[in-house]
Amino acid sequence: MKYVLFTGATGDLGRCCIEEIVKTGDWTVFAGGTNKEKLAQLGKLPNVIPVELDVTSEESIENVYRTVRSHTYTLDAVVNFAGIHTFTSLVEGNCVQEIEKMLNVNVMGMVRVNKRFFEMIRIGHGRIVNCSSESGWMTPQPFNGPYTMTKYAVEAYNDSLRRELMYLDIPVIKLQPGSFKTQLTNKIYRDFDAAIESTNYFRNILTTMKPMMTMELGLDHDPKKLAKKLLLALTAKLPRTKYKVCTGKLLMTLELLPDKVVDVAYRAIVR
Ligand SMILES: NC(=O)c1ccc[n+]([C@@H]2O[C@H](COP(=O)([O-])OP(=O)(O)OC[C@H]3O[C@@H](n4cnc5c(N)ncnc54)[C@H](OP(=O)(O)O)[C@@H]3O)[C@@H](O)[C@H]2O)c1
Fold first, then answer.
1. Which CATH number belongs to the domain containing residue 262 in this structure?
2. Which residues contact 208 (CB under 8 A, 6 or more apart)?
3. What is the pTM of this model?
4. Which residues form ligand 1's pocket by a CB distance below 6 Å?
5. Which atom of ligand 1 is nearest to the CA of 10?
6. Nearest CA to ligand 1 atom 39
7. Distance from the CA of 33 to the center of ligand 1, in angstroms?
8. Spacing, Cα 12 to ligand 1 middle (Å)
9. Number of folded domains that form the chain
């Protein structure tokens, strides 16, 4: 039996991935999250050990470390899915606090967890999988800046960690999912409406952009496609450095254009 610690296990994507992982019969999953009800649900799956884990708290991570160590001395993988999203302007509202909060969960949470469990991974000849996003490599969209900042940071962290740990033969792999309907994306609709209500400067542009955002977020991709890529990342003898899945086609076309042309395209939206 192989052991994996999974953060963000109580999320919609996390739960789906864990269901597929345990179906293989090869893995025991330490499933981390803060939502007690969802942890209890996860605990009903075979070979899933729910653990209360707040990735912003060293104390919480230490408690989980003790629990994991009571079951195994080594880990075959750590998978980092814990993440939050806030849709906000970069100059209005509580953007500074929101960005700090998001960086703390999406980036520093990953840093804390990987650091604490590194030795167990090293001894187990295991690997690390970090969940980025298409927002981590695509040209940034207006008003999605804070989340984009965190996922660009995840990319830089992941790649630097990969090149550091390759000297110890520990693969570090990133996932770059497109859009999936989850609690995280549902929250974007609410944030978007709140931003339209509260903005002093961007009401017209946000209102005009809403249908496009709705179209992009409305894409009903099957999360099992992500789970399949994750299983590859966890088991391939020679895993790729990154796995893209369900990349947004509309956004992808912007990648073909020079920055200035993308700016013109975004400007044209409000004309
Ligand atoms: N959905 C998408 O379209 C999409 C696209 C690309 C990438 N992603 C990435 O995929 C990952 C999972 O997202 P999702 O869509 O499944 O979102 P979700 O359903 O909202 O799940 C988010 C997960 O993060 C956990 N989390 C949040 N704050 C935490 C904290 N302080 N400590 C520990 N866990 C914490 C939540 O746990 P609790 O609720 O138990 O606290 C939950 O398990 C995220 O990293 C996200 O950025 C999502």
1. 3.40.50.720
2. 269, 270
3. 0.97
4. 7-14, 33-35, 38, 53-56, 81-84, 105, 109, 131, 133, 177, 179-180, 182-185
5. 43
6. 35
7. 9
8. 8
9. 1
- Please give the distance, rounded to the nearest whole angstrom, from the Cα atom of residue 259 to the centre of ligand 1: 30
Residue with tokens 């109580």: 10
pLDDT digits 0-9 by tens, 118-159? 999 999 999 999 999 999 999 999 999 999 999 999 999 999
**How far apart are alpha carbons 97 and 128 in whole angstroms?**
29
Determine the Cα–Cα distance for residues 81 and 131; give it in Å rounded to an integer. 5
26 CA distance to ligand 1 centroid (A)? 25
Protein residue whose Cα sits closest to atom 33 of ligand 1: 54
| 6 residue type, one letter | F
Please name the residue whose Cα sits nearest to atom 32 of ligand 1: 54
Hey, how many other C-beta atoms are within 10 angstroms of the C-beta on 180? 20
- Per-residue pLDDT reduced to its tens digit, 188-247: 999 999 999 999 999 999 999 998 888 888 888 999 999 999 999 999 999 999 999 999
Task: Please give the distance, rounded to the nearest whole angstrom, from the Cα atom of residue 190 to the centre of ligand 1.
Answer: 17
The DSSP H or E segment spanning 80 is strand 77-80
Domain of 180, in residue numbers: 2-268
- Residue 2 β-bridge partners: 27
Q: Can you read off the two tokens belonging to residue 19? A: 């269901």
Amino acid identity of residue 240, one-letter, is: R
d(CA 174, CA 181): 20
Return contacts of 206-213, CB within 8 angstroms, 24+ apart: 206/143, 208/269, 208/270, 209/142, 209/143, 209/269, 212/250, 212/269, 213/188
